[in-house]
Amino acid sequence: xxxxxxxxxxxxxxxxxxxxxxxxxxxxxxxxxxxxxxxxxxxxxxxxxxxxxxxxxxxxxxxxxxxxxxxxxxxxxxxxxxxxxxxxxxxxxxxxxxxxxxxxxxxxxxxxxxxxxxxxxxxxxxxxxxxxxxxxxxxxxxxxxxxxxxxxxxxxxxxxxxxxxxxxxxxxxxxxxxxxxxxxxxxxxxxxxxxxxxxxxxxxxxxxxxxxxxxxxxxxxxxxxxxxxxxxxxxxxxxxxxxxxxxxxxxxxxxxxxxxxxxxxxxxxxxxxxxxxxxxxxxxxxxxxxxxxxxxxxxxxxxxxxxxxxxxxxxxxxxxxxxxxxxxxxxxxxxxxxxxxxxxxxxxxxxxxxxxxxxxxxxx
Length: 364
Hints:
The protein is mainly beta. It has helices spanning 2-23, 94-97; strands spanning 57-62, 70-75, 82-85, 104-107, 113-121, 128-139, 146-147, 155-160, 166-171, 178-183, 190-191, 198-202, 208-213, 219-224, 231-232, 239-243, 249-259, 265-277, 280-286, 308-315, 321-328, 331-338, 345-346, 353-359.
């Protein structure tokens, strides 16, 4: 009996030593009130295309053909890349105003239409209205251009309700960024926020809207779909929040400080995911870790002016993949990774490519 107690005591001592030695290797999220460890996953250097594509496509913006931004599509494994819509073909004067002819895209839930942001196009005279932006709508085949907003200030950041009947968007028509909703045909435009906000995204159940509010820093907030009860959920810089298909997580980008090979600090965007927990702060997991010397085999890469890195994340329909673009110097390309941050795969090569977003297969 005494021998058994001695063996048990020795085992407990060994276990305690093991925990003590490994404790310093556990990292905790600075955003959460719990003590759950944050998992950081090093990106893969793999660049081969996945063998199988998820059902549906990716819509994205590219300059590969005409030098100005046009809507393109590709399979979710990067194959069958093609141009869907470039309205500089129909309105060449756009190039005289801005090379950013189309800046943001939002496919409808049924995959039959795409809302996008472009320069203000006068519906009366066919001319262009300076640098102002409006929201437009086209069919998935590029036909049927409709102008949804027509205001003297910028209208941007469209996102669809899950039933496809409404679009939430941001506008500066009241002097600073506010969030509005409108019918899918542009009618019934109503302001729903009392605090500043932009870049909204509707939750899959239609009950919540995630958005960015500037305040002291641009951070991610959540409110009810009618604009009530706005609540900050992430206390650090956060942009481009996007709900997971199951509504349990929000992926977003945040700024982090890094050091170049000469130990000079610079900022770069990283992708994180917030696990939403009712009645508690979210658990934040960092999915990317931009280090020019490691993940992408880049040597002596120094990020120049402007914040670069991992940007514009969006989910696949099954929630197992995250699409994003990686900006390194003047090269911006689209990648896909697993939802846990592993296995980075490069999907584009030619031109500048960004703002990937899942495009559902149109329902017949």
